[in-house]
Amino acid sequence: MFLEESRWVMNRINEIEDVKSILDIGSADINYREEKQPYISKMYSSVGIKIDTLDLKEAEGVDYVRDITERECVNGLDKYDVVLVCNLLEHIIPTKIDTVLDNIYMLLKSKSYCIVTVPYNIGFHPSPIDNGFRPNVDELENIFSSRFEKVITEKVICSHYREPYLSNPDLLPLPEVTCGVMRKRL
User: Residue 94's Cα: distance from chain center in Å?
Assistant: First the structure.
């Protein structure tokens, strides 16, 4: 996650009224959130409520070790006001995307929100796979449209990495992330 992306997510959470519960799917471990990308833990703490975490890998700081691509993943989990799906969909086998979206839907309370971010012009990065999913805002809306209604979608330019890009023009353009807030349809 980029700094500007985490700010965008935090701002969208703060715009939603009466948020009492949040689940971050694909959260990674606490070391990643605090050391490698410390603005993620700052985002968590600025929200003011505990954010539950779900990840495929068992590690420190992961509350639920589950495979979001499996239907039984949601069994026994609470329902949430907000589910974060940040930089996850590009790592899902394409035939499993519908299952992931179904699971997100089932993890949300009625009239709740999914906040999603995906790379737009960022290169290949397997973790463990990269399916090449780099949607624009219309494509992101379309993927969610059968289960969710769009609240906002936009591209976020991630300029805090600006210096290496300016000194090496081969790296341009600046990284962009497609972001969206989707409300669960009833």
Answer: 17
